[in-house]
Amino acid sequence: MNKINPIMKTKIQEIRNNSITNMTKKCFQIAAILLLSFTSTQAQDKKAKDLLNEVTTKIKSYDNIVIDFKYSLNNAKENINQDSKGNVTMKGNQYVLNFMGVTKIFDGQKTYTINPEDEEVTISKVNEKDDNAITPSKMLTFFNSGYKYNMDIVQNVKGRKIQYIKLVPTSGKDQRKEILLGIDVQTKHIYNLIETGKNGTKTTLTVNSFKTNQPLSKNQFTFVASKYPKYYINKLD
């Protein structure tokens, strides 16, 4: 069997890490929309605001959320077409994300990135002041400002009525052109999240399964080192 060129392996890992990071952001974007009350003073579409508030009211009653999803990354110009599946469990400020063979656990203070391929666990503290840090608290204020939103198209997806809301960044420096949020009109649950970049890249997160109030283990969001006796523990802080 031919060995992978070290440079190519590094590139593959970089792509995978970027995809995991983007996926984490999108999961929190969904969480943000689920939990936020949209009280921005900017002129907004009242129907869009009312629908988002309906979603918020319903979701606030859930103790936890478990999502199975499909993640697609497409850029015709660069000939990129990538599909991956994963799942995420969220409760308050904690989460467990399984995506592209890697598990990320956030216990509310530290992030544990478990990589079976490299037999490595990376542990890092979360710095709330870091603009690039992905944290639930930061994402829960993500849509409070910097966006204007309005009702968009309605689609019939396998008998489900999906109402889209378009969010457009107000800052010209934002590399995203727009975000489309699809909401199941009947259940008031998120169906998908479509983000289009100014460079033509489109990423889509589609919710295949949306479960709530699931029986979770008491160690659901706890990293147990004894499960990985042969792994290299890389502490960044």
Automatic annotation (TrEMBL):
Pfam families hit by this protein: LolA
Domain of life per record: Bacteria
Gene3D superfamilies associated with the record: Lipoprotein localisation LolA/LolB/LppX
Keywords, sorted A to Z: Lipoprotein, Signal
Protein name listed in UniProt: Outer membrane lipoprotein carrier protein LolA
